[in-house]
Structure formats: structure tokens, C-alpha cells
Amino acid sequence: MFPVTLPRISWGDPRAPRRTLLVHGLGSTAALMWRFGVALAEDGWRADAVDLRGHGVAPRVLDYTIPAYAADLARTRPEESDATWDLVIGHSLGGAATTLAAAATPEWTRRIILIDPAIHLSAHDREVVRRSQEEAFADPTEGAVRAAHPQWHPHDIELKALAARQASRWAVEQTSLQNPVWDVRDALARLDVDVDVLAADPGVYSIFDGPLATEVLAANDRVRMTVVTGAGHSPHRDKPEQTVAELRRVLQERRTMGS
Description:
Structural class: alpha/beta
């Protein structure tokens, strides 16, 4: 396994004192984290988002294990080569990779926010993900995305269709096949930084709920959880205003608590 250099896009002033890294989910791209990038830039942050290996315009490789994704992230730093991120936000697969990277490299980030993270996938969740990716690749058009998600912002519709056209279908398929056991619970339990989970609504669809969420919260008292009511697995696209409001709330609460 070897790390690759991930391409990035950015929001905010390069001289901003606070730096955050945004990590997308399976079949997505850096650009699809734009809601977080815009909100954080408005609040005085510099936000950098990366295309994960095999996605967007990132390098294609043979290894699509979660540790490989994490190794790429661990060597992705602010412009100063040895600098620490003030915050890393990871969605779904990006949440799993972020968790492993932070556990392996404690100085990599000062805090983490996970968006409906893929911490442990059941057989049911794997099948839901597989069907979702098959549908995305079968018709990677804006019309298909709009039909499936009519409430999404036009940017998200455009960028989700583009993400399906840009991603390596083989890489997405291999991400499932090369991770027969998908479980980073131990890594999350070891983290010694503040972690906030913004989970999707189980009444819609979430991969972080029920006994899994209960177990994770009990294993590490630095992990907290908020449910974005009415949102599916991508809260920042399903309920963007509510998700951004929760993001700002947890950031402010931790600052008030002195974390």
C-alpha cells in the first residue's frame, strides 16, 4: 500500500487562521462538499476538499481498502507540510477513512465532524449502497439525479451526475469487494479528539443509528451525536440549511465548552 497525492479545491481566504479538510463519500467528489465549504468560508475558515483515490480527477490505483484511503488523507495537510488541521469533516466512506487516519496519526487533526459515517456496514447497508451505486452508473445524467432527488439544489444535481461520470466504476466496486469486513469501531473508540456525528434520520435512511450509534457513543465519551431530522444519508444535500445550522451549533458548543 502506498499513498497518493489527492487533488483539492478550496473555499475561503488562504490566510484564514482556521483550516478544515472536507472528505466526500463513495461515488462523490470534492465539489459535492460545497455546502460545508461555503458555510465555513463565510465563517472565516479556509476549507480544502479532496477527491479520494479513484474518484473525480484523483489518481487511479489498485488498492481501495479503507486503510489505503486513510493513508492518502493522513499525508494530506494544510499548505504547511507538517501542519495540523483544525477540523476534518468526513461523509460516509470519507468518515470511515477520516476515523482511521486520525487514529493512526493523532497530530493530523484537532477535531472531527462525521456526516452519517460508514463506521460499520451491515449486510443490509452494503446492499443498499451497491444498488445506489449501480443506479448512479446506469444513468449518470442530471435528469436521473433530479428525478431521484427533486428537492436537491441545482448545484448538487449537476455535481452528482458529474461525479458518476468521473468516478472509476471499478474503483467504486472494489471499495466494497476489498473491504469484506467494514468496521472502524475500534479506531473511533481510540480517538482522543472531539468528534461530533451529524447522523441522517433513521426514518428516512441512515447508516449510523440504533445499536451501532449506542455502542459507539458508549465506547468514547468524546463522541457526540446529532440527528438531522428529515435527512437521508446525505444530509448536506437533503436538508442543507438544517445541516449547516447543526454544523455551526456543534462548533460553537465545543468552543464554549473549551474543547
